[in-house]
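Researcher: Can you fold this with iron/sulfur cluster in place?
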Amino acid sequence: MVRLDLTRYPWALSILRNRWPQFLLRAVTLAGFVFTILTGLFGSVVGSHNFAIIFVWIAWWTALKLFFIPFGGRSWCSICPIPMPGEWLQNGGILMPRGKGFGLNKRWPKALRGSWLQAGGFLLIGLFGALTLTSASVTAFVLLFIIVLAFVLSLVFERRSFCNYLCPIGGFTGLYAQAGPVEVRVKDAEVCASHAEKTCYTACPWGQFPLALKSSANCGLCMECLRVCPSDNIAVNLRPWGSDLGPKTKHRLDEAFLGLIMLASVLVDSAVFLGPWGQIKSAAYAIGSTPWFIFAGVFLFAALVILPGLYAGAVKLSMLMGSSRTTLRKSLAKYSQVLVPLGLMAWIAFTISFAFAKFSYVLPVISDPLGWGWNLIGYSNSAWVGQSTSISLLLQVVMLAVGLAWSSRVALRVSGTHRQALPLVTFSGIFSFSMLWLLIG
Amino acid sequence: MKLPLPISNLITFFLQWIWLFVFVLSGLLILIAPLPQSSRTPQKRLIRIEASSFQFTPGQIHINPNDEVTVELVSMDVVHGLSLDGYDFELKADPGQTVSATFVADKAGVFRFRCSVACGNLHPFMIGKLQIGPNQLIIRGIALLILSIVTAFYSVRQIPQLQTRLA
Ligand code: SF4
Ligand code: SF4
Ligand SMILES: [Cu+2]
């Protein structure tokens, strides 16, 4: 397959290898993170006038799904502020390679590995989403909790255990980064084979061994391996979209679970935030009340029973149609790849609908971040209601169609025969039609 | 990768990706092809919408193109507004008050209407739906999704190396 190795260009190589450019970006995001927490705690209680709400849920969440993931895979994780303080302590300095710092360096318990906990975290976000999404102080507390948790865990466990196994955003980006167009790989496997020290593995904050990388899901694009390899054997490739998806890559059962949780979440979020059903919104918001328990029950039922049931049924059916003998577990894992483009494009369609209408809020909150009546850049009163235009509606339809075509292609490519792909294509079709109805209906 | 210079390579390359070209073209066709318009005679309508935190009742309204619509907005609790996507139409009602205005529904499609006065935490999501005539976009969407599936089957059939790799 076609690859364009960025490290072939001296200027790109020096930007990637030098620790300063990345540090500066991370410093900016960390400052933004702290500022967001402060505005969330002390700013206006009117969500649409508070920097924290608009920046986290409109600007950043949109940028992640429309820019960072589709054009850079896990690129957000390379500049994410959340693991920074802990990592600096672990490394004993700001511009240092891994090791030599504080921390107990324990291994993460085996039983808690994989993306199960990340999927659980994402479910929790969904269950309490209507409150977090609209209350600045709750958003601030969530951010504060996350950064403290990441810090504490980095003192106890080795490397980026929080990122690898807990961060819900990490689960989201990791899953969909497999479809993204950037990857870190070794240039020449022979060179690695004859290098006994494996400096890159020792240096990798994510615990990856670049030679063994088959998928970009767990590589945080931090470039540490590139910096320490004595033979300049690490490549940073631009590649065709969806390169990690196909008959030759390995996938785990927890990827299927994560993928299904994401599908359920985007369906529920579309119904709650974009639908015309006031009762669902109030139920999702009134945490602890009876309507909320009903909402939570329906959400969990969809995420843990209906979608997994349909998916498992489709996989089972496709196994029955084929002749090769594999276990259900293996097939569930293999077909999880179908859920990647399907979910990614659905999230993009949702984001277009959700954010385009609300983007008019961004300039006013930069102008008056705390909602205290400031007017820093003269845009404080430019907010308007926002609307979805016919272009944005068309784009949503196109994104859903691309997602269905793409996931069907993946299903066909990983199946032995076309007939075997049919149940999975049907599953993708049902999901896409539901999204279409929720967004356009 | 070296560029596939020999002509036969170029042809294979073209054949491999022609499905994408066909997909995009027929997709565009589906999205812009004219569909028959509804021919109902326009009528005058009075629609009363109750706004309460955080919903409009009724939340979904269906009318015909070119109807002359008078919207009566009643606020049941705090100040609410109603602003209609795609139209330059906005109303604001104080608590307990009724306001009304009239417009001609000369654009067909499904339009969201939203509360335009910050009325509480869920305000940005206080949304209703006004459908004017048939929902053409969803019909096009359904056709496009079916086309996506057909294209997928066609495109994978078109890649011979894959077939051998899988065999
Ligand atoms: S996994 Fe989460 S905390 Fe870690 S870098 Fe990515 S987004 Fe940040
Ligand atoms: S493989 Fe390299 S770029 Fe990827 S996480 Fe590890 S050190 Fe960072
Ligand atoms: Cu309102």
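Model: Folded with iron/sulfur cluster in place. Helices of chain B lie at 7-32, 136-157, 160-166.
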